[in-house]
């Protein structure tokens, strides 16, 4: 129950990048006019690690970890979007899947 | 000479914060009693449920109906719902008086008290559905199911409420009309 998006890179000028804001390309969104639906939506970078850690709602510890964030605004004219995560995304996440949830919903 | 304060009890300074009980709760205009909502988060995510009313805390009271999709009388926050244009006419449905926030509050399960020899024997108290909940569920669902049966499109509605919402490939929510 999420939209697929890709983490394309950090907010940057040509020679400097600011890792606190991530740029996401959401599947199916091709222009700026289509992005307002996604403003404020929560997004998650889900990844696996070697060590098992406790996770809420489950008895058993699991290898799956998440970094939560939210979509803050659009970026450019072609439907890209800016997102801020609770912890900055690791650069190894570039090109990887980010899940854009359908909540907080406004429709 | 002792210091005698002018007021017996010091008065609290005025705070700009309002208590939760005094908050004003708004409701999206797309959500009216009888609207079919899609739950987007929580253990019932993907289910299509019927909206009954907004409670005093601002949370929405919904029901599956339980028979159709396993969602009981439940509270949810409107930000975790998508309102669809499908609406049922539940103006004739009477909800039991006791369905309010206090009724739905989480019950504190008593932690097992460990006595001398019984540390591993005392069972943990597990949540069980109370009889009043079952009564209310049956009472409300009966009326809602009657409303659906009287509706022109009852076959469609039964199937609709029983099915789950999901996003397939090339389906984008920003392009959808709910």
Mean pLDDT of chain A, nearest integer?
Answer: 94
Question: What's the total number of strands of chain B?
Answer: 5
Q: If strands are numbered along the chain, what order do they take across the biggest sheet of chain A?
A: 1-2-5-4-3-6
The SSE string of chain B, one letter per element, is EEEHEEHHH
Strand order of the largest sheet of chain B: 4-3-2-1-5
- What general form of chain B does the structure show? extended
Q: Give the terminus-to-terminus CA distance of chain A.
A: 16 Å
**Cα end-to-end separation of chain B:** 76 Å
- What percent strand of chain A? over 45%
Q: Tell me which oligomeric state these chains represent.
A: heterodimer
SSE ordering of chain A: EEEEEE
Describe the structure.
Chain A: Belongs to the eukaryotic ribosomal protein eL33 family. Chain A: One of its GO terms (molecular function) is structural constituent of ribosome. The complex is a heterodimer of chains A (107) and B (178). Chain A is mostly beta strands and 107 residues long. Chain A contains no helices and six strands. Chain A is globular. Chain A starts with a strand and ends in a 6-residue tail after the last strand. Helices cover 21% and strands 15% of the residues of chain B. A five-stranded antiparallel beta sheet of chain B has the order 4-3-2-1-5. Chain B is extended and about 85 Å long. The model of chain B has no long low-confidence stretch (mean pLDDT 88). Chain A binds chain B through residues 1-3, 27-29, 34-35, 37-38, 101-107, and chain B through 28, 30, 40-41, 45-46, 78-83, 165-167, 170, 172-175, 178.
């Amino acid at each position: 129950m999420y939209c697929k998006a890709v983490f394309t890179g950090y907010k940057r000028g040509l020679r400097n990048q600011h890792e606190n804001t991530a740029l996401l390309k959401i599947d199916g969104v091709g222009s700026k006019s289509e992005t307002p639906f996604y403003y404020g939506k929560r997004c998650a970078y889900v990844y696996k690690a070697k060590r098992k850690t406790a996770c809420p709602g489950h008895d058993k510890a699991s290898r799956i970890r998440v970094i939560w964030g939210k979509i803050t605004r659009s970026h450019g004219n072609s439907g890209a979007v800016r997102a801020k995560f609770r912890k900055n995304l690791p650069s190894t996440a570039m090109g990887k899947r980010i899940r854009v949830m359908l909540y907080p919903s406004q429709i | 000479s002792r210091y005698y304060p002018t007021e017996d009890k010091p008065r609290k300074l005025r705070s700009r914060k309002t208590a939760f009980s005094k908050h004003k709760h708004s409701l999206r205009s797309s959500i009216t009693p009888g609207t079919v909502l899609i739950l987007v988060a929580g253990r019932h995510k993907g289910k299509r449920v019927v909206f009954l009313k907004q409670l005093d805390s601002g949370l929405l009271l919904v029901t599956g109906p339980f028979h159709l999709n396993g969602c009981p009388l439940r509270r949810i926050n409107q930000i975790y719902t998508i309102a669809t244009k499908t609406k049922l006419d539940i103006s004739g449905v009477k909800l039991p008086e006791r369905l309010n926030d206090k009724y739905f509050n989480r019950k504190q399960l008593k932690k097992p008290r460990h006595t001398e020899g019984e540390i591993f024997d005392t069972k943990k108290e597990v949540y069980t559905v109370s009889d009043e909940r079952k009564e209310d569920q049956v009472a409300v669902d009966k009326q809602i199911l009657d409303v659906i049966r009287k509706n022109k499109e009852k076959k469609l509605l039964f199937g609709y409420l029983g099915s789950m919402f999901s996003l397939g490939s090339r389906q984008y929510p920003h392009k959808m009309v709910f």
